Amino acid sequence: MELLLQETRKLIDSLPEKIKKSAFKPKSLMKMTGIPSATFYNRMKYRNFTFSEVEKIVKILEFEKKIEEYIRSGEVDIKKGETLTIEEIEEKYS
Questions:
Q1: pTM flag (> 0.90)
Q2: What angle do CA 29, 25, 62 make, to 5 degrees?
Q3: Quick one: which of 50, 61, 69, 56 has its CA closest to 12?
Q4: Of the candidates 68, 67, 60, 63, which has an alpha carbon nearest to the alpha carbon of residue 34?
Q5: Is 5 exposed, middle or buried, given 0-12, 13-18 or 19+ CB atoms closer than 10 A?
Q6: Crossing angle of helices 51-80/26-33, nearest 10°?
Q7: 10 confidence band (pLDDT: 50, 70, 90)
Q8: CB-CB contact of 77 with 83 (8 Å)
Q9: What are the b/e assignments for 13-44, b being 16+ CB within 10 Å?
């Protein structure tokens, strides 16, 4: 149990830095999570996000990672020449 609490504390303590590194602007995160501006900046400063807020923010940041992975994967495919024309895509999915 104590280990779980320590890991949760580490996550909460690391959130402000993860948010700063994110491509999402704080205003976007506030809108997506429903956290009011003053509360958001207070939470960032004192690292006292609620569990519910942490959950929402982590989901958003994980979504961002997935998008970045898809983009990198697509870039690799392009470099390898593994692409399809619009016509090939239409044929494949019609």
A1: no
A2: 55
A3: 50
A4: 60
A5: exposed
A6: 120
A7: very high
A8: yes
A9: eebeeebeebebeeeebbeebebeeeebeebb
Residue type, 78: I
pLDDT tens column, 13-53: 999 999 999 999 999 999 999 999 999 999 999 999 999 99
Question: What is the rounded (10 degree) CA torsion for 39, 44, 50, 55?
Answer: 110
Residue written as tokens 């207070």?
Answer: 42
Residues 43/53, Cβ–Cβ less than 8 Å: yes
Q: Is the pLDDT of residue 85 over 90?
A: no
Q: For tokens 């491509």, what's the residue?
A: 23
